[in-house]
Write a structure and sequence with these properties.
By secondary structure, the chain is an all-alpha fold. It has a domain of 33 residues. Helix 1 packs across helix 2. The longest helix has 13 residues.
Length: 48
C-alpha cells in the first residue's frame, strides 16, 4: 500500500472528492482510516 501522502495525491489526480466507509474491514482499518485521520480537514462526515 502507498503512504498516505501518495494516496492523497492519487485521490487528487483521480478527482476523488468522496470516500465511503461502511462496514470496517481489516483493509479499511489498516489503510483508509489512517488517511482520513491524517487529512481530516479534507473530509467531512455524512451520515445515512
Amino acid at each position: 500500500m502507498k503512504d498516505p501522502p501518495e494516496v492523497m495525491a492519487s485521490f487528487e489526480e483521480w478527482g476523488v472528492d468522496k470516500v465511503g466507509v461502511g462496514e470496517l474491514s481489516l483493509t479499511t482499518i489498516r489503510h483508509l482510516l489512517p488517511i482520513i485521520r491524517i487529512y481530516a480537514e479534507r473530509f467531512s462526515r455524512s451520515y445515512r
